[in-house]
Amino acid sequence: MFATVGIAKANVGTVTNEKGEFELVIPTEHLNKMLTISHIGYNTVNLKLDSLSAYDYVEIELTEKAEFLEEVIVASKKLRGKTKEYGNKKKHNSFIWIQKGDRGSEIVMLIEPKTEIFLNSVSLNILNELEREFLLLLNIYTVNKSTNLPEAQVLRNQKVIRSTLKKGWLEVDLSDENMVLTEPFYIGFQWVEIEEPLPLIGCKSSTSLKSLIRYKALGKWEEFVEWDIKVMGTSYEAP
User: Fold this and answer.
1) Which Pfam families match (predicted)?
2) Is residue 165 part of a domain?
């Protein structure tokens, strides 16, 4: 469920439902391209669209990705932890939503830690006046050093967020992921279900190169307002 399906950078994409089903209308000018299906923890599949056009229904199977344990260094010294906040630490009064958004649309914000941090949680400022349940996927990406855009997925397990929060910080606990990050990374929130009326997202009024949006799954990233996204992390040092 909730796999990302689409044509990379073509603004043709969606997210599968809870049964793993999807329906996608492909413009004729893209029929010579590849259909990409990706999911955290599974190997990405790329299929030629012209090979699928003869079928009304296609079943695609993803294979589980092998995980290799990283080397762990155990030190005898006690380490002192200090919790830090990154991103937009204060909520703002302005709210906005992706007016052209669809299933799989996504917002991201660049986080640049100054030291090695253990990731505790991430939060998004939400306004949901009708308190309707909504679904989001949390994504964490490395940064492409050439383009400064999101690149590889960092999470090992899919994080599905279900909430009816009316207003305030929607917090996602990441302490069980045991993630230690040293390089800049992107925090992203991807919409699984789009219904009217839409929950709104807190933002700064100024634009920023650190905040991006894409209106379709696997679509092109565009610069946008600076989202109200914050990250809590702990850095450790010897006393």
Assistant:
1) CarbopepD_reg_2
2) yes
Number of domains in the chain: 1
| CA 15 – CA 77 distance, rounded (Å) | 46
Supply 120's token pair. Answer: 């505790």
Query: How wide is the angle at C-alpha 201 spanned by C-alphas 147 and 84, nearest 5°?
Result: 70
Q: What is the pLDDT of residues 190-233, one digit of tens each?
A: 988 766 667 788 888 777 768 999 988 999 999 988 899 999 99
Q: Is residue 43 part of a domain?
A: no
Is there a domain that residue 205 lies in? yes
Could you tell me which residue, 56 or 142, shows the higher pLDDT?
142
For residues 28 and 125, give the distance between their C-alpha atoms in angstroms, rounded to a whole number.
39
User: What is the model's pLDDT at position 67?
Assistant: 66
- CATH code, 189: 2.60.120
Three-state DSSP state, 182? coil
| Confidence (pTM) | 0.88
The pair of three-digit structure tokens given for residue 202, joined into one six-digit string: 């807190």
- The answer for 73, left when phi > 0, alpha when psi is -120 to 50, beta otherwise, is beta
Alpha-carbon distance 233 to 84, whole Å? 5
Q: Is residue 12 part of a domain?
A: no
For residues 166 and 164, what is the distance between their CA atoms, to the nearest angstrom?
6
- Of 132, 111, 135, 134, nearest to 122 by C-alpha is 111
- How many CA atoms lie within 13 Å of 111's alpha carbon, on the beta-carbon side? 31
Q: b or e along 142-171 (b: 16 or more beta carbons within 10 Å of the residue's beta carbon)? A: ebeeeeeebeebbbeebbebebebebebbb
Note the pLDDT of residue 100.
Answer: 62
Categorize the per-residue pLDDT at 74 as very low, low, confident or very high, splitting at 50, 70 and 90: low
User: Which residue range forms the structural domain that includes residue 110?
Assistant: 80-237
